Amino acid sequence: MFFRIWGSRKVKEFFGIIGGMGTVATENFVHAVNQLTETHKDQDYLDYIVFNHASIPDRTAYIFDHTKPNPLPLLQSDVEKLNDIGVSFIVMTCNTAHYFRSELQKSSKAPILSMPNIAASACQTSTNKDSKVGIMATDGTISAAIYQKELIGKGVQPVIPDAHHQQLIMSLIYDDIKNKDFVNREKYHQLITYFFQTLDCDYIILGCTELSVAQEQEPYPSEYIIDAQHELAKYVVKHAE
């Protein structure tokens, strides 16, 4: 457990969560952290602060069209607030927001953990170098090659869907989960099946936190699904404890 000294008193360090992208996914992450933490009393839970900054503009919209509202200034303001608070590290509960991570790190006093890197590392541990890993993520994450770069860096082959199935993924994320707080089980499971059977993937990375919500609410029964947000939660608990 990390501690810092305040005067003559030792206190646990705490971390910061930049969330609200979306809010249900942020709730899902916090729930996962709490569930993964071994506790016997209130004081055993981890110390953290959550910024549910729901008004941050859509990340994918900006990646494709820089005339759209830019999420970076609001993300930077959150980082500056967390600097003032003195967190030990920061996580962002949005994969697409990692498009801005390197720029945000320049103004952050604490390390900003990389969910895509942690997920790719988990994937590397679970697979061999000949494995094909499907990526389910937003258009923005796919276009920016956030996961492709991480997987190639780990020596694993990334696989992305065709345009039709990518459109279905976006519909699941935006039309169903973000818009209606609803997981379309049939759509989600058909997409997973497409990656495993049609694209012959050995593993699938859920590279969007809304897809983490889908897996929690309508789980596809497979040990070969790597939930990026859940991997981040496991990493946070392991290192904070």
Quick tags:
single chain, 241 residues, alpha/beta, Rossmann fold, 2 domains, 4-stranded parallel sheet, 3-stranded parallel sheet, 11 helices, globular
Question: What can you tell me about this protein's structure?
Answer:
The chain is α/β, with parallel strands linked by helices and 241 residues long. It folds into 2 domains: 121 residues, Rossmann fold; 114 residues, Rossmann fold (3-Layer(aba) Sandwich). Helix content is 50%, strand content 15%. The strands form 3 sheets. A 4-stranded parallel beta sheet has the order 7-6-8-9, sandwiched between helices. A 3-stranded parallel beta sheet has the order 4-3-5, sandwiched between helices. A two-stranded antiparallel sheet has the order 1-2. α1 links the parallel β3 and β4. The radius of gyration is 18 Å and the shape is globular.
Helix and strand content put the structural class at alpha/beta
Biggest beta sheet attributes: 4 strands, parallel
Helix amount, in percent? 40-55%
Low-confidence stretches: 5-11
How many alpha or pi helices? 11
Strand content: 5-15%
Which CATH top level class of the largest domain fits? Alpha Beta
What is the first-to-last residue Cα distance? 4 Å
User: What is the CATH-assigned architecture of the largest domain?
Assistant: 3-Layer(aba) Sandwich
Label the overall shape: globular
Mean pLDDT: 93
